[in-house]
Amino acid sequence: MAQFNLDSKYVLNNGVEMPRLGLGVWKTDNKTAETSVTQAIKDGYTLIDTAKQYGNETGVGRGIAAGLEATGKKREDLFITTKVFNGDQGFDSTLQKFEGMLKRLGLDYIDLYLIHWPVDDTFVATWQALETLYKAGRVRAIGVSNFDETHLQQILDAGTVVPAVDQIEFNPLVQDTKIREFAKKYDIAIEAWSPLGGGASLTNPAIQAIADAHHKTTAQVILRFDLQSDIITIPKSVHEARIIENADVYDFQLSQAEMKQIEDLNKEQRSLWLDDFYWHGNPKGYKDEVDQWPDSPEDYDA
Ligand code: NDP
Q1: Which terminus, N or C, of the chain has the lesser number of Cβ atoms within 10 Å?
Q2: 21, 23, 25, 26, best to mutate for ligand 1 pocket (most atoms within 8 Å of CB)
Q3: Is 116 helix (H, G, I), strand (E, B) or coil?
Q4: What is the CATH code of the structural domain delimited by 9-280?
C-alpha cells in the first residue's frame, strides 16, 4: 500500500500528473474563496477546484496570486481545475467563454477543464470544444463531471480524446460503483465531489469508531478512504484549522477490514442528480444561473 503525502500525484491517462488531494470552494464568496485558497497554498495544497457556477473564480484567482507570492511557488507548481458553466455549453459558446474564465482566474492556461454537467443535447458539442482547446494547448487535461456510463459512452463514441477525469459525487453514502467500473475500463480517473457528504458523513457512528481507533477525525478517515480507493478528493473548508486537518491524512492507514466497513455504508444516495435541473425537464429545477454573491458582479458575466 502506497504511503501518500500531500505531493502525491495521480497520473492521468494523458500522462499529466494531478495532485490526489485538493481544496474545493463551492458555496464560498469571492472574499472567502480568496482567503481560503491563499491559506491552502500556504499549507501545501497544490490542487484547487472551482467552477464558473460558483461565482468565485475571481476570488480564487486572487487567492492563487497571493498564495504564490507568499510561498514563492510558481504557477506550474499548482493544478487548477474549473468547469464549463451549464448555460455556456455548446461548441461556439464554450470556446467564446474560455478567455473570460482565464481572465477571472488571472491565468493563461488551465490544468483541468471539466464539463460541469451533461446538459441535454449540448454536452457532446461542448466536449468537441474542449478537445479543440486541449489540442491547441490551452488546457493540460480535459474531463467531465456528473457523467454516468451512458454519457461517457457518448463522448467516447463522438470524440477523439478520452476524458481524463470524471468528477462525481462520492462519499461513504454514495460510492457510484457502476460509473467507477466503467471509468476504470477507459483509465478515466474518478474525483470525489462532496467527499465529506457536505458535512453529513462526519457524524456516522461506524466512521467515528474507525476514527477513534486511529486517533484521527471522521473527516480524516473519509479522506484517507478516498486516497486508498485511488480517488482524487477535494474537501472544502473555509477554516484554516480544517484545511490543515483535511490534509493531515498521511500518518495512518486503514486496514482492509476498515475499508470494507466504509464500502458497506454505500447506499447510492445522491444529493444532486440530473433530474434536479431545469434543463432536464424539471420546471422547478435548478436554472442555469451563476451563484451570486454581493461582491462578485464580475463573475456574473454573460
Ligand atoms: P464537502 O464534502 O467537502 O464538505 C464541506 C462541508 O464540510 C463544509 O460545510 C465544511 O465547513 C465542512 N468541513 C470541511 N472539513 C471539515 C472538517 N475537517 N470537520 C468538520 N467539518 C468540515 O462538500 P462540498 O459539497 O463543498 O464538496 C467539495 C468540493 O467539490 C466543492 O467545494 C466543489 O469544489 C466540488 N463540487 C463539485 C460538484 C460538481 O457538480 N462537480 C458539486 C459539489 C461540489 P467549513 O467550510 O465551514 O469548514
Answers
A1: C
A2: 26
A3: coil
A4: 3.20.20.100
CA 269, distance to chain mean position in Å, is 19
pTM: 0.97
pLDDT tens, position by position, 211-246: 999 999 999 999 999 999 999 999 999 999 999 999
What are the residue ranges of helices labelled H in 136-280?
Answer: 149-158, 177-185, 205-214, 218-228, 240-246, 256-263
Q: Residue 108: how many CB atoms within 10 A of its CB?
A: 9
Residue 9 main-chain phi, psi, to 5 deg: -120, 150
- Rounded Cα distance between 114 and 121, Å, is 17
Q: Which residues pair with 233 in a beta bridge?
A: 21, 192
The catalytically annotated residue of 10, 45, 54, 113 is 54
**Local structure of 58: helix, strand or coil:** helix
Domain borders along the chain are: 9-280
- Grid coordinates belonging to 8: 502525491
Amino acid identity, residue 63?
Answer: G
Q: How far is CA 152 from CA 118, 123, 149, 182, 193, in A?
A: 9, 10, 5, 9, 18
**What's at 38, amino acid-wise?**
T
